[in-house]
Amino acid sequence: MPSTVREYQDAILKAKKEKGFAILAHTYQSPEIVEVADFTGDSFALSKKAMGITEKNVLMCGVRFMAETVKLLSPEKRVLLAAPDAGCPMAEQFVREEIEDYRADHPDVLVVCYVNTTTDLKRACDVCVTSASALDIMRKLPTDREILFIPDCNLGAYVQAAYPDRKITLWRGGCPVHAAISKEETVAAKAKHPTAKLLVHPECKPDVTALADYIGSTSGIMKYAAESDAKEFIIGTEISVVWHLSYRFPDTKFYPLSKNLVCRNMRLTSLPDVLAAVKGEGGEEIVLDEATMKEARVCIDKMIELG
């Protein structure tokens, strides 16, 4: 049995080739897992990558809704979640029945859901968005309809600020990790690193994003840092992004906005989990019935159409 990180990585690379697996790792995964992945990126980008690969077995190193989205877009593939307990508190905040009840009282509403939602919740939604596509897709929606934006009220507030004339209803939901960052903490970080540019995720609160030099998705933050001439950055998203950027650009300084920007669910995936899954001894296969997938695909297909 492997006993070091390198030995586990070598065993994973060997087993995935023998078993015909492609490994997807969300950007928030730790560097040792990213190193054995075939593709790394934001959740929806990974789902699209999976559509074009030849491997019939796909392992998601991330959280459950991400693995479900891979299955929705590639129903013919066998999709596994490396760490079965890895959920997403934001994705699980609301249930489909709540949306259906709201629709009953607001029959003209358009329900826009963040991709960070369960498959069952997507069944009740009209359009899906990512943090990268939300502004563009909102621009293309009818202007005379009420929009119910779920589940993240902070991402929703970011969209609402860009379209102040639109009727956008927000519910109290969101990412507990990003939302925990306070304005005071942000002001302190900027004072400590006065020449650093502040890059934040729109899942942060409005009084935090108001202080930012750039607001965008994880991939957007990384792209901005890669293309900027600045040499210091405060990173207002999951702390793993600081690690990845520090490795890629060793001559640039990257500081976490907060030491508490850690997604515990992303930390549940380990190299032993990955090895067990690709060997057929672990992980959980994502199984969704055909009717559920058909209903949940409607909002994703609409996003692809508009995006």
From N to C, what is the helix and strand string? HEHEHEHEHEHEHEHEHEHEHEHEHEH
Number of helices in the DSSP assignment: 14
Query: What is the CATH third-level topology name of the largest domain?
Result: Rossmann fold
CATH architecture of the largest domain: 3-Layer(aba) Sandwich
- Write the CATH homologous superfamily of the largest domain: NadA-like
Instruction: Please state the structural category.
Output: alpha/beta
Distance between the termini: 46 Å
Strand content: 15-25%
What's the rounded overall pLDDT mean? 97
CATH class of the largest domain: Alpha Beta
Q: Globular, elongated, flat, extended or rod-shaped: what is the shape?
A: globular
* Biggest sheet overview: 5 strands, mixed
- What is the tally of beta strands? 13
Supply Rg.
20 Å
Contiguous low-pLDDT stretches (5 residues minimum) are none
Q: How would you write the strand order of the largest sheet?
A: 2-1-3-4-13
Counting structural domains, the number is 3
Helix coverage percent of residues?
A: 40-55%
Can you tell me about this structure?
With 307 residues, this protein is an alpha/beta fold. It has three domains: 5-87 and 266-288, Rossmann fold (3-Layer(aba) Sandwich), CATH 3.40.50; 96-175, NadA-like (Rossmann fold, 3-Layer(aba) Sandwich); 178-256, NadA-like (Rossmann fold, 3-Layer(aba) Sandwich). Helices cover 41% and strands 16% of the residues. It has 14 helices and 13 strands. The chain has helices spanning 5-19, 31-34, 43-51, 64-73, 96-105, 119-122, 134-139, 153-162, 183-192, 206-209, 218-227, 240-248, 271-278, 290-306, and strands at 21-26, 39-41, 57-61, 78-81, 110-114, 127-129, 147-150, 168-170, 197-200, 214-215, 232-236, 253-256, 284-285. It has a five-stranded mixed sheet, sandwiched between helices. A four-stranded parallel sheet has the order 6-5-7-8. It is globular, with a radius of gyration of 20 Å. The model has no long low-confidence stretch (mean pLDDT 97).
